[in-house]
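Review form for a predicted model. The reviewer records the input and the model, then writes brief findings.
Reviewer: anonymous (R2)
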Amino acid sequence: MSNTYFELNKTNIMSEFRILGDDFTPEVITEKLEIFPSKVWKKGEKIEGSNKVRDYSCWCLSTGYDESYDINEQLNKLLTILIPKKMKLIELKELLSLDYKIDIVINIESNEKPAIYLEKKSYNFLMI
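Model under review:
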């Protein structure tokens, strides 16, 4: 979607939609949603640079970092892709006992204050 890395001299925001579960195959999610994820991992895989292993499976869609002061810009990028898939997400959640999470990462420059609030369409989507 956007930048993987952020610029240190600017405020940057990234949003991620994560599908988490005890043990599922991420390719099943990709096939059902017809969306290519930003990253995936399976329960039991080794965590790179560590002696630990993953204790859950994950399918993640990320906006990447964008220069912004408003989290809704990044959330709306995710929602534009995910809202049309809402019924499929509900089916997958029930079928595979999944959890859904949205993460927002804000890198703030010069003590600037980004907007942190959710718009109504975010609330409506999060009801799945």
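Findings: The longest strand covers residues 12-21.
Further findings: The chain has a mean pLDDT of 87.
Recommendation: see findings above.
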